[in-house]
Design a protein that fits this description.
Strand content: 15-25%
Low-confidence stretches: 1-9
Number of helices: 13
Strand order of the largest sheet: 2-3-6-7-8-9-10-11
Helix content: 25-40%
Number of strands: 11
Order of helices and strands: HEEEEHHEHEHHEHEHHEHEHHHE
Largest sheet: 8 strands, mixed
Length: 283
């Protein structure tokens, strides 16, 4: 895309409505914000709000947005690619793409802001770290394969039914595994972001997940424990798989239990070592 194309898009040639979600076109003043996450210098988020609507997401709390609107009202930062083109001339460092909201949520198929940002990033000697649950990322392999980048795909369980309850707008786990495999075939460095670690993972579930990841060709797992945020526990309480009071009580207890986190993390490390995966702490 040329600078003219970007300018034209900024001036009003914007995509139309997206079914099932309200999209607001928002003009921003900064593309690359300083990041506090370890290993990242800047954060780049083409959207605010996320259609994946994961019930454990911390972003609505951090962004001071109503959780009820988070997955239904999406802000498309339509001038971000143009700003990025200008800022890359003077800002240098590791850029995290999708640190707050998923850059490959469904609206990206129409708005293509992530794609436009990658086109700009590919022209500069910067390292990019992409974080997503969206298998739409494979659309951009033509750019990613020639960039200094890594891609982390989040999977919390291989149980498709459970995933549909806790991550209702995200692609099913099997499609995320397929995305890892395709990225690996293109020699794009990948890792599994296993987080947050939830009380869904007994040893059998851990083996199922990590074996699928290894079979896809990924060799690294980043482990991210659950961190409580206001209102999240109540979201879990309403899930169908926790209708049974005894199961719900146990789940919510383990969710807050440091002992549970330590035990399941040890299991993940042990299974990962047996399979040949490197398991490291994400943060």
């Amino acid at each position: 895309m040329t600078s003219f194309d970007l300018f034209s898009y900024d001036q009003g040639a914007r995509p139309g409505p997206v079914k099932g979600v309200r999209v607001r076109n928002v003009k921003v003043s900064v593309a690359l914000s300083p990041s506090r996450l370890p290993g990242l210098d800047f954060a780049l988020n083409p959207y605010a709000g996320c259609q994946h609507d994961c019930i454990y997401c911390y972003a609505p709390h951090v962004a001071d947005r109503a959780r009820a609107d988070w997955g239904k009202v999406i802000e498309a930062r339509y001038n971000l690619p143009t700003l990025l083109m200008r800022e890359l001339r003077r800002k240098h460092g590791v850029i995290g793409l999708g640190t707050m909201t998923d850059p490959y949520q469904p609206v990206e198929s129409r708005y293509q802001l992530t794609r436009r940002c990658l086109e700009q990033l590919s022209r500069y000697p910067v390292k990019v770290s992409v974080h997503t649950k969206g298998d739409m990322i494979n659309r951009d392999i033509d750019l990613l394969r020639d960039m200094d980048c890594d891609v982390g795909i989040t999977i919390t369980t291989m149980d498709a039914e459970l995933a549909s309850q806790i991550e209702p707008g995200a692609p099913p786990p099997s499609r995320r595994i397929s995305a890892l495999a395709e990225l690996n075939r293109a020699d794009v460095r990948t890792y599994l972001l296993l987080g947050p670690v939830l009380p869904l993972l007994d040893r059998e579930a851990v083996v199922s997940l990590l074996q699928a990841v290894a079979d896809a060709g990924t060799v690294e797992v980043m482990l991210d424990p659950y961190r409580d945020r206001p209102g999240v526990e109540g979201m879990f309480s309403r899930l169908p798989f926790l209708e049974d009071e005894r199961r719900r009580t146990r789940f919510l207890f383990d969710l807050q239990s440091r002992r549970f986190q330590m035990e399941v993390s040890a299991t993940i490390r042990e299974v990962g070592d047996d399979i040949g995966l490197e398991v490291i702490d994400a943060f």
